Amino acid sequence: MNVSGRIALVTGGGQGIGRAIAEKLGSYGADVAIIDVNLEKAQEVAESIKGMGRKAMALKVDVTNLKECEEMAEKVFKEMEAIHILVNNAGITRDGLILRMTDADWDAVMNVNLKGAFNCTKAVVKYMTKMRWGRIVNIASIVGEIGNAGQANYSASKAGLIGLTKTVAREFASRNITCNAVAPGFIETAMTDALSDKVKEELMSRIPLGRLGGPADVSNGVLFLASNAASYITGHVLDINGGMAMQ
What is the pTM of this model? Predict the structure, then answer.
């Protein structure tokens, strides 16, 4: 699962799962562009990857803006001379029951989680097409497969991302570009840290492996899909959920 010599671009790479993915790819030999709306956090991750002896750069980008995404891709390609791997990880939540969910809550989540992945894919894939090699990995979610009360917008965005994944896989397979998704279950992040012990216990009772996942569980799956070890896998959704949902 070596990715030496590859150039990776990770959106939402400044913290949480995105940071774990960026650092994992760096530790396995990739040079990494970290994209985030928080430039300071992205720069911290870039310095961490440089400490591994790899090249890294940090960029502040609003993934909902196609023009910014195109400028981002052009800058990364010029400075790093290639883009081999794209990880669409940027995402937000604006939870609420349907009857209370506002248009703004719906639109914000759909714009970042789904439109953002579309924009970044559209901006980056043309460079992969020229090289006739590429790995696109989208970070979906278990709730995009099974739904979740209070997360109509988030669930819909992640279900849409799975559909986008399969379409991109079909459109670009002839150019040796694969597109897959990982669908994490409940992962230990700042968001889950805020949950009460009672809620965490209830969650873990629904997970056959009896624990929440860690960012490394997700980053290991991304590393696999981004490597040559997964060269014959495309249009696939890799569930990383401790058995909470089985297909």
Answer: 0.95
